[in-house]
Write a structure and sequence with these properties.
Number of strands: 16
Helix content: 10-25%
Number of helices: 3
Radius of gyration: 27 Å
Distance between the termini: 79 Å
Shape: globular
């Protein structure tokens, strides 16, 4: 028969149980974040969950545990932080290489490393190089932010990287085959569940305040690119300056006096073009010519 516990031991045991219950309750009651973008085709990385969901046609194909930066979130150069927001897969590297292949400067070295090899933390198996699509993550590509395999698989599920999104060799091998060059990848603070709820709500709405990311329309399917459908309103603009009727150009009348100059010696000020009505903005990809933006309703290009 075991000896009865002393009063101090019982207090320690009760305190430990209380802390465990408190931890569970705190994790359940922790407030979630609102998503900033919705992915219909591509991937969603949840910093809160330390998971990545691969999406196709608005449905989750597979969910994987991942590891984001142990230094937090951000895009400043040299910060070793994971950038938030909408990205695209700019290139995929490592096709045909065996699992565990070590990459240096995105080139296979010929060495394969087993998971959790002591003292080793190389990039292994596959690389998906991300390019930022928003001002808040514009440095992602030059900072070499990847989704990649890691030999330190024991740290997956906790923030442990130096800015990249880490996966196990088996998982990145599979995700590499599910995702395509040009597919959108959104890195969010919120949970995967919050992103899925926002997607379900956006599909019921005629207009969404969020950035909606989907695969390219049928006519661009062979180009293997992503399209971003933006429903964010244009920022408010100041009204055009009033111009007296005498200063406005009248058809059939030369707006300038002889010599082509105004009496004050300056070119005559022309009436500015009319300000377009408020509505979904149409942009063109600055650093990604293949990325298309459409004026449309949710998920439907016009």
């Amino acid at each position: 028969m075991p000896a009865p516990l002393s009063q101090a031991a019982r207090l320690i045991q009760l305190a430990g149980a209380a802390f465990a219950v408190f931890g569970v309750l705190a994790s359940c009651s922790r407030p979630d974040y609102e998503p900033t973008a919705i992915v219909k085709d591509g991937a969603v990385v949840s910093v809160r969950d330390q998971k990545m969901a691969v999406m196709r046609n608005g449905r989750v194909v597979k969910t994987y545990p991942v590891s984001t930066s142990k230094f937090g979130l951000g895009d400043r150069k040299g910060s070793c932080r994971t950038p938030l927001g909408a990205h695209r897969i700019a290139s995929k590297i490592g096709s045909g290489q065996p699992k565990g292949m070590v990459f240096k400067s995105r080139k296979p070295t010929g060495e394969c490393v087993a998971p959790n090899s002591p003292g080793r933390d190389p990039i292994v198996t596959r690389i998906m190089w991300l390019e930022g699509l928003e001002p808040r993550n514009r440095n992602a590509h030059s900072r070499l932010i990847y989704i990649h395999g890691t030999a330190e698989e024991r740290t997956i599920g906790t923030p442990a990287s130096y800015g990249c999104v880490r996966m196990t060799s088996n998982d990145v091998y599979e995700a590499f085959n599910l995702l395509r060059t040009g597919d959108p990848v959104v890195i969010e603070r919120c949970s995967i569940d919050a992103s899925l709820k926002a997607l379900a709500q956006a599909e019921k709405m005629q207009d969404s305040p969020l950035l909606v990311m989907a695969s390219a329309p049928d006519r661009m399917e062979n180009a293997n690119t992503a399209s971003v459908i933006s429903h964010r309103r244009r920022a408010s603009r100041p009204p055009p300056l009033p111009f007296p009727a005498s200063k406005r150009h009248q058809p059939g009348k030369n707006p300038f006096p002889p010599g082509g100059r105004s009496p004050a010696g300056r070119p005559e000020i022309q009436e500015p073009p009319s300000v377009p009505p408020e509505g979904p903005a149409i942009h063109s990809g600055k650093s990604s010519p293949s990325l298309l933006f459409f004026r449309c309703s949710v998920f439907t290009a016009s």
